[in-house]
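Could you help me review a protein record that somebody else here produced? This is what I was given.
***
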Amino acid sequence: MIGKSFNRKTQLIDVMAETLKEELLRLLLEDGEFRLAVAGALGLAETIEEIKKLRKDTARNTKAIRALQRQVAEHSNAIRSLLEQVARNTEAIRALQEQVFEHTKILAEQTKAIRALQEEEDEHTKAVRALREKAEYLSRFVKDVARTVAAVGARYGLLDEEAFREAMRDIVEELFGGKVERWIQFDEEGIVFGHPGVVEADLVVRDKEHVLIGLKASASRSDVREIAYIGKLYERVTGVKPRLALVSPHVDPRALELARKLGVEVYTGAALEH
């Protein structure tokens, strides 16, 4: 009896276990809350959350990867375009190099021709310089002769003072570094000649310096006194104290001594040889 009773209990337990198993399977399949509760009891909830998080991360990464793939595709297209442009530029550069080579050859030929012209020009320049030197020598010679003739002619009454002055004008301008002008003034007080009269003298104004010049074919003591008195008249009329100079090919030695006393510069002899 005991054995039979035990077997029945065992069978009953097996049936109940089988029924419980089926019920558990059904609940796991059909009841979400039960399934989560079982998962939590088994420590699977955290794993599921991690899996969900991983899925989200995977989705974001997938999205980022797709964006990167698009960027890579765009960059690839840009690089392809740049490579095509580089190829075109390379071809253009090659064409330019060929042109430069041709121009270089032409430039070399032109440079050679220019050098030949320069050498020819140098020869012409030397010839022109030689001719100019001869012309300058002849000009100086003619001027020296003209001044000598003018001085001799004026001294011995063969040439008037005005002609002599014109012949010596370039020398005076070289001496004093300025254009010679004629200063004419009526001397009411008779400072120069002792009585009223017209006074004339050559004048050079340069860098605020006024130079009164007595230009004579032959200078004596009276000529020195005259330029000194003209200087006083000029200072009284203009308010400017002038520098006084006497220019003459021939100067009396006594006139030189008087000129030093009166502050008159004398230009004669070698000073007039230009």
User: Anything to note?
Assistant: Residues 2-43 form one domain. The longest strand covers residues 197-206.
